Amino acid sequence: MFDTHRYEGLLTTTLMGRSVARLDSVDSTNTRLAAMLVERNVGAMLVFAERQTDGRGRSGKSWVSPAGVNIAASLAWPLPSAVISPGLVTLSAGVALAEVVRDVCGAPATLKYPNDLYLNGRKAGGILAERKIRGQEPWAVIGLGVNVNTEEWMFPEDLRETATSIKIETGQPASREALLAGFINRLEPLLNEVTRTGPERMLASYRSLSMLLGRRVTVLEGERKLSGMALDVDGAGALLLEQDEGGVVTVISGETSLHHTIRSAG
After folding, report:
1. Which 3-state string (H, E, C) describes 116-142?
2. Which end of the chain lies in a sparser environment, N or C, as judged by fewer CB atoms within 10 Å?
3. Which helix (H) or strand (E) holds 239?
4. How far is CA 42 from CA 24, 53, 234, 239, in A?
5. Which DSSP symbol is given to 67?
6. Model-level pTM?
7. pLDDT per residue over 143-189, tens digit each?
8. Rounded CA gap, 32 and 204, in Å?
């Protein structure tokens, strides 16, 4: 059982994640928090679920989390839309997640553009940041799914070659409370810094954690197929792709892979 009191004792933020709604089971933490933003006028709160039955990833893919072993959570954060793009929110959350997994668990975390956490070449988690409007105010709902203490037998058979967890990769169980609090402790100041002074330092961290930059990928953008070198991420958080036939194009969002076709969501 997730220990809310322990989590709160580890939290050092000013606002983010201070208000907590812990649920035994939910279809999607992002869906639930988005509804709470409108219906209850909540602030920068956290929704945590012991079990998630219909979590959503990019391009509408599902992410189901069994009970009691993983992190399935969503955070609300006021979005200064004139300053920070949703793409930068996603990349900032990725940096915060990869850094805390490395520091707390000693696991070799890397990031696959734009929103996936990888350990030793297998997916261990992901982030889904969505822009929501409450009245005239834009908010970000930042969904976080991490396979923390999942055993291999808990994964569907067709995912056991490509999915992993922190426990599988390190051989040791990890504290969900320490991971979640550590993630939020890093994310709040990082988003504040990006808003106040720009994304340069965050993007430098993202580049150092990326598993794709400088390597060849393929993008499916609607009916269009693009292949080339993943060069960089720009100041809005978009991927810059140098096409095989020449020219650099911007991929605003998408699923990326070194070995499989990338399908853009944009």
Report:
1. EEEECCEEEEEEEEEEEEECCEEEEEE
2. N
3. strand 239-243
4. 20, 24, 33, 33
5. T
6. 0.90
7. 999 999 999 999 988 888 999 999 999 999 999 999 999 999 999 99
8. 33
